[in-house]
Write a structure and sequence with these properties.
Blueprint: E1 11-12, H1 22-28, H2 38-55, E2 62-64, H3 68-79, E3 85-90, H4 93-105, E4 108-113, H5 122-131, E5 135-141, E6 143-144, E7 149-150, H6 153-162, E8 166-170, E9 189-192, E10 205-209, H7 211-219, H8 250-266, H9 268-289, E11 292-293, E12 305-309, H10 316-327, E13 329-330, E14 332-333, E15 342-346, H11 354-370, H12 377-390
Parallel strand pairs: 1-13, 3-4, 3-5, 5-8, 8-9
Antiparallel strand pairs: 2-10, 6-7, 9-10, 11-12, 12-15, 14-15
Helix pairs in contact: 1-8, 2-8, 3-4, 5-6, 9-11, 9-12, 10-11, 11-12
Length: 392
Protein backbone atom coordinates (compact mmCIF):
# COMPACT_ATOMS: atom_id res chain seq x y z
CA UNK A 1 0.00 0.00 0.00
CA UNK A 2 0.98 3.66 -0.30
CA UNK A 3 0.29 6.45 2.20
CA UNK A 4 -0.98 9.63 0.61
CA UNK A 5 0.63 12.93 1.58
CA UNK A 6 -2.59 14.15 3.15
CA UNK A 7 -2.81 11.00 5.31
CA UNK A 8 -1.13 11.28 8.72
CA UNK A 9 1.94 9.03 9.05
CA UNK A 10 1.86 5.86 11.11
CA UNK A 11 5.05 6.87 12.94
CA UNK A 12 6.56 10.33 13.31
CA UNK A 13 10.25 9.63 13.97
CA UNK A 14 11.51 13.13 13.36
CA UNK A 15 13.86 15.49 15.17
CA UNK A 16 10.87 17.65 16.13
CA UNK A 17 8.09 18.36 16.51
CA UNK A 18 7.76 14.92 18.01
CA UNK A 19 4.68 12.98 19.00
CA UNK A 20 3.37 13.99 22.42
CA UNK A 21 2.78 11.63 25.31
CA UNK A 22 -0.91 10.63 25.56
CA UNK A 23 -1.25 12.01 29.08
CA UNK A 24 0.12 15.36 27.87
CA UNK A 25 -2.51 15.58 25.15
CA UNK A 26 -5.24 14.51 27.56
CA UNK A 27 -4.19 17.10 30.11
CA UNK A 28 -4.14 19.86 27.50
CA UNK A 29 -7.87 19.23 27.09
CA UNK A 30 -8.59 20.32 30.66
CA UNK A 31 -10.60 23.43 31.40
CA UNK A 32 -8.77 26.62 30.45
CA UNK A 33 -8.74 28.71 33.60
CA UNK A 34 -8.55 32.49 33.79
CA UNK A 35 -4.91 33.34 34.43
CA UNK A 36 -5.75 35.40 37.54
CA UNK A 37 -7.99 32.74 39.00
CA UNK A 38 -6.32 31.80 42.31
CA UNK A 39 -6.60 28.14 41.36
CA UNK A 40 -4.54 28.76 38.21
CA UNK A 41 -2.01 30.94 40.01
CA UNK A 42 -1.43 28.19 42.57
CA UNK A 43 -1.25 25.60 39.80
CA UNK A 44 1.26 27.64 37.78
CA UNK A 45 3.47 27.96 40.85
CA UNK A 46 3.36 24.19 41.37
CA UNK A 47 4.35 23.58 37.73
CA UNK A 48 7.27 26.02 38.02
CA UNK A 49 8.49 24.21 41.14
CA UNK A 50 8.29 20.86 39.34
CA UNK A 51 10.34 22.36 36.51
CA UNK A 52 12.89 23.52 39.08
CA UNK A 53 13.16 19.96 40.39
CA UNK A 54 13.46 18.50 36.88
CA UNK A 55 16.17 20.98 35.84
CA UNK A 56 17.86 20.89 39.28
CA UNK A 57 18.18 24.68 39.57
CA UNK A 58 18.42 26.99 42.62
CA UNK A 59 15.26 28.84 41.57
CA UNK A 60 12.46 27.95 39.17
CA UNK A 61 13.32 28.31 35.48
CA UNK A 62 11.47 30.85 33.42
CA UNK A 63 8.50 29.48 31.51
CA UNK A 64 8.39 31.68 28.42
CA UNK A 65 5.28 31.63 26.28
CA UNK A 66 6.70 30.49 22.96
CA UNK A 67 8.77 27.63 21.55
CA UNK A 68 12.49 27.71 22.40
CA UNK A 69 13.56 29.95 19.52
CA UNK A 70 11.93 32.66 21.64
CA UNK A 71 14.13 31.69 24.58
CA UNK A 72 17.31 31.73 22.52
CA UNK A 73 16.65 35.15 21.08
CA UNK A 74 15.56 36.43 24.50
CA UNK A 75 18.82 35.15 26.00
CA UNK A 76 20.83 37.10 23.43
CA UNK A 77 18.77 40.25 23.90
CA UNK A 78 18.81 40.11 27.69
CA UNK A 79 22.37 39.01 28.50
CA UNK A 80 24.47 40.58 25.76
CA UNK A 81 25.28 44.26 26.23
CA UNK A 82 26.35 46.58 23.41
CA UNK A 83 29.95 46.69 24.70
CA UNK A 84 30.26 42.89 24.97
CA UNK A 85 32.49 40.64 22.90
CA UNK A 86 30.83 37.26 22.33
CA UNK A 87 32.49 33.98 21.38
CA UNK A 88 30.09 31.82 19.38
CA UNK A 89 30.90 28.12 19.04
CA UNK A 90 29.63 26.86 15.69
CA UNK A 91 29.62 23.13 15.07
CA UNK A 92 26.43 23.06 13.05
CA UNK A 93 23.59 25.03 11.55
CA UNK A 94 21.97 25.97 14.87
CA UNK A 95 25.22 26.84 16.61
CA UNK A 96 26.14 29.04 13.68
CA UNK A 97 22.70 30.60 13.72
CA UNK A 98 22.99 31.88 17.27
CA UNK A 99 25.84 34.09 16.14
CA UNK A 100 23.42 36.12 14.04
CA UNK A 101 21.29 36.91 17.10
CA UNK A 102 24.41 37.73 19.13
CA UNK A 103 25.58 40.15 16.44
CA UNK A 104 22.43 42.26 16.90
CA UNK A 105 23.41 43.12 20.46
CA UNK A 106 27.18 42.68 20.86
CA UNK A 107 30.07 44.99 20.10
CA UNK A 108 31.72 42.11 18.27
CA UNK A 109 31.19 38.38 17.72
CA UNK A 110 34.19 36.07 17.51
CA UNK A 111 33.67 32.50 16.36
CA UNK A 112 35.23 29.09 16.57
CA UNK A 113 33.79 27.02 13.74
CA UNK A 114 34.41 23.38 12.90
CA UNK A 115 33.09 21.06 10.20
CA UNK A 116 29.43 20.30 10.71
CA UNK A 117 30.10 16.62 11.33
CA UNK A 118 32.43 17.44 14.23
CA UNK A 119 32.31 19.05 17.68
CA UNK A 120 34.08 21.87 19.49
CA UNK A 121 37.33 20.94 21.24
CA UNK A 122 37.15 22.34 24.79
CA UNK A 123 40.89 22.98 24.81
CA UNK A 124 40.52 25.21 21.75
CA UNK A 125 38.01 27.23 23.76
CA UNK A 126 40.44 27.44 26.69
CA UNK A 127 43.21 28.76 24.45
CA UNK A 128 40.90 31.23 22.73
CA UNK A 129 39.66 32.66 25.99
CA UNK A 130 43.21 33.05 27.30
CA UNK A 131 44.13 34.97 24.16
CA UNK A 132 40.92 37.06 24.26
CA UNK A 133 40.23 38.00 27.90
CA UNK A 134 37.73 40.62 26.73
CA UNK A 135 35.15 37.93 25.88
CA UNK A 136 32.17 38.26 28.21
CA UNK A 137 29.74 35.70 26.78
CA UNK A 138 30.22 32.31 25.13
CA UNK A 139 27.38 30.62 23.25
CA UNK A 140 27.18 26.93 22.39
CA UNK A 141 24.65 24.43 21.08
CA UNK A 142 24.68 21.18 23.06
CA UNK A 143 23.04 18.98 20.43
CA UNK A 144 23.22 20.56 16.99
CA UNK A 145 20.17 18.77 15.67
CA UNK A 146 20.74 19.26 11.90
CA UNK A 147 23.99 17.27 12.31
CA UNK A 148 23.12 14.91 15.16
CA UNK A 149 26.36 15.89 16.95
CA UNK A 150 27.09 16.73 20.58
CA UNK A 151 29.35 19.28 22.21
CA UNK A 152 30.82 18.57 25.65
CA UNK A 153 29.05 21.41 27.43
CA UNK A 154 30.22 20.34 30.88
CA UNK A 155 33.88 20.60 29.88
CA UNK A 156 33.33 23.81 27.92
CA UNK A 157 31.27 25.30 30.75
CA UNK A 158 34.02 24.70 33.31
CA UNK A 159 36.50 26.49 31.05
CA UNK A 160 34.14 29.42 30.49
CA UNK A 161 33.53 29.74 34.22
CA UNK A 162 37.30 29.74 34.91
CA UNK A 163 37.60 32.62 32.44
CA UNK A 164 34.88 34.49 34.35
CA UNK A 165 32.65 34.66 31.29
CA UNK A 166 29.01 33.56 31.04
CA UNK A 167 27.75 30.77 28.79
CA UNK A 168 24.48 30.60 26.88
CA UNK A 169 23.52 26.99 26.12
CA UNK A 170 21.08 25.83 23.47
CA UNK A 171 19.82 22.61 25.04
CA UNK A 172 16.56 22.51 23.11
CA UNK A 173 16.91 18.94 21.83
CA UNK A 174 19.08 17.52 24.62
CA UNK A 175 17.48 18.39 27.95
CA UNK A 176 15.37 15.51 29.21
CA UNK A 177 17.10 13.03 26.92
CA UNK A 178 20.65 12.91 28.24
CA UNK A 179 22.88 14.20 31.06
CA UNK A 180 24.09 17.78 30.96
CA UNK A 181 21.85 20.19 32.85
CA UNK A 182 22.28 23.86 33.70
CA UNK A 183 24.18 23.14 36.91
CA UNK A 184 26.62 20.56 35.59
CA UNK A 185 27.64 22.82 32.70
CA UNK A 186 27.73 26.02 34.81
CA UNK A 187 25.46 27.77 32.31
CA UNK A 188 24.64 31.44 32.61
CA UNK A 189 21.47 30.89 30.60
CA UNK A 190 20.35 27.39 29.68
CA UNK A 191 17.54 27.31 27.13
CA UNK A 192 15.37 24.28 26.47
CA UNK A 193 11.74 23.44 26.08
CA UNK A 194 9.28 20.63 26.69
CA UNK A 195 8.61 20.08 22.97
CA UNK A 196 11.41 17.59 22.31
CA UNK A 197 12.52 15.00 24.86
CA UNK A 198 9.76 15.91 27.33
CA UNK A 199 7.09 14.89 24.81
CA UNK A 200 5.00 18.09 24.59
CA UNK A 201 3.80 20.00 21.52
CA UNK A 202 5.85 23.09 20.61
CA UNK A 203 4.72 26.16 22.51
CA UNK A 204 6.86 26.86 25.60
CA UNK A 205 10.46 27.63 26.58
CA UNK A 206 12.18 26.58 29.80
CA UNK A 207 15.11 28.87 30.59
CA UNK A 208 17.35 28.48 33.63
CA UNK A 209 19.23 31.67 34.54
CA UNK A 210 22.12 31.74 37.01
CA UNK A 211 22.61 34.39 39.69
CA UNK A 212 25.61 35.76 37.80
CA UNK A 213 23.57 36.00 34.62
CA UNK A 214 20.74 37.78 36.45
CA UNK A 215 23.25 40.30 37.78
CA UNK A 216 24.50 40.97 34.27
CA UNK A 217 20.96 41.23 32.88
CA UNK A 218 20.02 43.71 35.64
CA UNK A 219 23.11 45.78 34.83
CA UNK A 220 22.41 45.75 31.08
CA UNK A 221 20.54 48.96 30.24
CA UNK A 222 19.52 47.50 26.89
CA UNK A 223 17.97 44.32 28.30
CA UNK A 224 14.36 44.37 27.09
CA UNK A 225 11.38 44.98 29.32
CA UNK A 226 7.68 45.02 28.41
CA UNK A 227 8.59 42.80 25.46
CA UNK A 228 8.07 39.20 24.35
CA UNK A 229 11.88 38.94 24.70
CA UNK A 230 12.00 40.29 28.26
CA UNK A 231 13.41 37.58 30.49
CA UNK A 232 13.52 39.84 33.54
CA UNK A 233 9.76 40.37 33.38
CA UNK A 234 9.19 36.67 34.04
CA UNK A 235 11.73 36.09 36.82
CA UNK A 236 9.21 36.10 39.67
CA UNK A 237 6.05 35.39 37.70
CA UNK A 238 6.11 31.84 39.04
CA UNK A 239 4.97 33.07 42.45
CA UNK A 240 1.21 32.85 42.91
CA UNK A 241 1.19 36.35 44.38
CA UNK A 242 2.82 37.98 41.35
CA UNK A 243 1.19 39.12 38.11
CA UNK A 244 2.01 37.63 34.72
CA UNK A 245 3.67 39.98 32.20
CA UNK A 246 1.04 38.82 29.72
CA UNK A 247 -1.40 35.95 29.37
CA UNK A 248 0.32 32.57 29.73
CA UNK A 249 -0.51 29.67 27.43
CA UNK A 250 -2.84 27.93 29.85
CA UNK A 251 -3.36 24.71 27.86
CA UNK A 252 0.39 24.41 27.29
CA UNK A 253 1.03 24.80 31.02
CA UNK A 254 -1.46 21.99 31.63
CA UNK A 255 0.49 19.77 29.23
CA UNK A 256 3.83 20.73 30.77
CA UNK A 257 2.53 19.67 34.16
CA UNK A 258 1.77 16.18 32.86
CA UNK A 259 5.14 15.95 31.11
CA UNK A 260 7.03 16.93 34.27
CA UNK A 261 5.06 14.43 36.33
CA UNK A 262 5.97 11.69 33.90
CA UNK A 263 9.66 12.67 33.76
CA UNK A 264 10.03 12.85 37.52
CA UNK A 265 8.07 9.65 38.08
CA UNK A 266 10.16 7.63 35.61
CA UNK A 267 13.36 9.27 36.88
CA UNK A 268 15.86 11.26 34.79
CA UNK A 269 18.48 8.49 34.68
CA UNK A 270 15.92 5.96 33.43
CA UNK A 271 14.69 8.40 30.79
CA UNK A 272 18.25 9.08 29.63
CA UNK A 273 18.98 5.35 29.46
CA UNK A 274 15.89 4.79 27.32
CA UNK A 275 16.98 7.48 24.86
CA UNK A 276 20.55 6.16 24.78
CA UNK A 277 19.53 2.56 24.07
CA UNK A 278 17.15 3.59 21.30
CA UNK A 279 19.89 5.63 19.63
CA UNK A 280 22.50 2.90 20.05
CA UNK A 281 20.19 0.32 18.48
CA UNK A 282 19.39 2.67 15.62
CA UNK A 283 23.06 3.41 14.93
CA UNK A 284 23.86 -0.30 14.94
CA UNK A 285 21.12 -0.93 12.41
CA UNK A 286 22.13 1.94 10.14
CA UNK A 287 25.75 0.80 10.07
CA UNK A 288 24.72 -2.80 9.38
CA UNK A 289 22.66 -1.61 6.40
CA UNK A 290 25.97 -0.49 4.93
CA UNK A 291 25.36 3.21 5.48
CA UNK A 292 27.43 5.69 7.46
CA UNK A 293 26.63 8.06 10.29
CA UNK A 294 26.95 11.78 9.64
CA UNK A 295 28.96 12.50 12.83
CA UNK A 296 32.67 12.02 12.22
CA UNK A 297 32.93 9.75 15.28
CA UNK A 298 30.23 7.69 16.92
CA UNK A 299 31.17 8.98 20.37
CA UNK A 300 29.91 12.46 19.44
CA UNK A 301 26.61 11.12 18.05
CA UNK A 302 23.52 12.26 19.93
CA UNK A 303 21.27 10.02 21.99
CA UNK A 304 18.25 11.97 20.78
CA UNK A 305 18.82 12.00 17.02
CA UNK A 306 20.62 9.70 14.60
CA UNK A 307 21.93 11.50 11.53
CA UNK A 308 22.46 9.17 8.57
CA UNK A 309 24.87 10.23 5.85
CA UNK A 310 23.63 9.66 2.32
CA UNK A 311 25.95 7.84 -0.10
CA UNK A 312 27.58 9.92 -2.82
CA UNK A 313 25.06 10.93 -5.43
CA UNK A 314 22.02 10.09 -3.28
CA UNK A 315 19.67 12.92 -2.29
CA UNK A 316 17.98 12.44 1.07
CA UNK A 317 14.70 13.99 -0.11
CA UNK A 318 13.42 11.10 -2.25
CA UNK A 319 14.43 8.58 0.45
CA UNK A 320 12.45 10.47 3.10
CA UNK A 321 9.47 10.74 0.76
CA UNK A 322 9.60 7.03 -0.10
CA UNK A 323 9.85 6.00 3.56
CA UNK A 324 6.70 7.99 4.29
CA UNK A 325 4.76 6.88 1.22
CA UNK A 326 5.74 3.20 1.44
CA UNK A 327 5.82 2.63 5.21
CA UNK A 328 4.06 5.61 6.79
CA UNK A 329 7.25 6.61 8.63
CA UNK A 330 8.05 10.33 8.70
CA UNK A 331 11.74 11.20 9.07
CA UNK A 332 13.56 14.54 9.10
CA UNK A 333 15.74 16.12 6.46
CA UNK A 334 18.86 18.16 7.10
CA UNK A 335 18.85 21.93 7.51
CA UNK A 336 20.88 24.57 5.73
CA UNK A 337 24.18 23.14 4.51
CA UNK A 338 23.17 19.62 5.60
CA UNK A 339 19.93 19.63 3.55
CA UNK A 340 19.85 16.75 1.09
CA UNK A 341 22.99 15.22 2.57
CA UNK A 342 21.53 13.33 5.52
CA UNK A 343 18.43 11.86 7.09
CA UNK A 344 17.64 12.49 10.74
CA UNK A 345 15.88 9.93 12.88
CA UNK A 346 14.55 11.38 16.13
CA UNK A 347 14.64 9.54 19.45
CA UNK A 348 12.81 11.96 21.71
CA UNK A 349 10.13 11.50 24.33
CA UNK A 350 7.55 8.92 23.24
CA UNK A 351 9.71 7.70 20.33
CA UNK A 352 12.70 7.09 22.59
CA UNK A 353 11.70 3.44 22.80
CA UNK A 354 14.04 0.81 21.31
CA UNK A 355 11.32 -0.75 19.14
CA UNK A 356 11.12 2.46 17.14
CA UNK A 357 14.72 1.96 16.05
CA UNK A 358 13.53 -1.16 14.26
CA UNK A 359 10.82 0.79 12.44
CA UNK A 360 13.26 3.54 11.47
CA UNK A 361 15.93 1.20 10.11
CA UNK A 362 13.32 -0.81 8.23
CA UNK A 363 11.90 2.36 6.68
CA UNK A 364 15.29 3.76 5.66
CA UNK A 365 16.55 0.42 4.32
CA UNK A 366 13.30 -0.42 2.56
CA UNK A 367 13.06 3.01 0.95
CA UNK A 368 16.61 2.89 -0.30
CA UNK A 369 16.10 -0.60 -1.69
CA UNK A 370 12.93 0.52 -3.47
CA UNK A 371 14.86 3.41 -5.02
CA UNK A 372 17.55 1.06 -6.32
CA UNK A 373 20.28 1.62 -3.73
CA UNK A 374 22.19 -1.35 -2.37
CA UNK A 375 21.72 -1.90 1.37
CA UNK A 376 21.61 -5.05 3.51
CA UNK A 377 18.16 -4.79 5.06
CA UNK A 378 18.29 -8.15 6.84
CA UNK A 379 21.59 -7.29 8.47
CA UNK A 380 20.26 -3.92 9.57
CA UNK A 381 17.20 -5.39 11.24
CA UNK A 382 19.25 -8.11 12.92
CA UNK A 383 21.70 -5.54 14.28
CA UNK A 384 18.92 -3.50 15.86
CA UNK A 385 17.43 -6.45 17.69
CA UNK A 386 20.87 -7.72 18.73
CA UNK A 387 21.72 -4.36 20.28
CA UNK A 388 18.41 -4.23 22.13
CA UNK A 389 18.81 -7.80 23.35
CA UNK A 390 22.38 -7.09 24.51
CA UNK A 391 20.99 -4.59 26.99
CA UNK A 392 19.27 -7.42 28.79
Amino acid sequence: MRYAEETPPVFTLTAGPVDAYPEVLQTMGRTVLYDYDPAFQAFYESVALKAQKAMDTPEPPLILQGEPVLGLEAAAASLIAKDDVVLNLASGVYGKGFGYWAARYAKRVEEIEVAYDDCIDPETVRTYLKDHPEIAVVSVCHHDTPSGTLNDIDAIGAIVADAEALMIVDAVSSFGGMPGGPGSCKAGIYVSGPNKCMGCPPGLTLAAVSEAAWAKIDANPDAPTASILAMKDWRYAWKRTNPFPFTPSVAEINGLDAALDRYLREGPEAVWARHALTAAACRAGILALGLKLWPAREEIASATCTAVKMPDGVDAGPVIAEARARYGVMLSAGRGVTAGKLIRIGHMGPTAQPIYALAAVAAVGGAMTALGHDVDLAAGMAAVTARIDADG
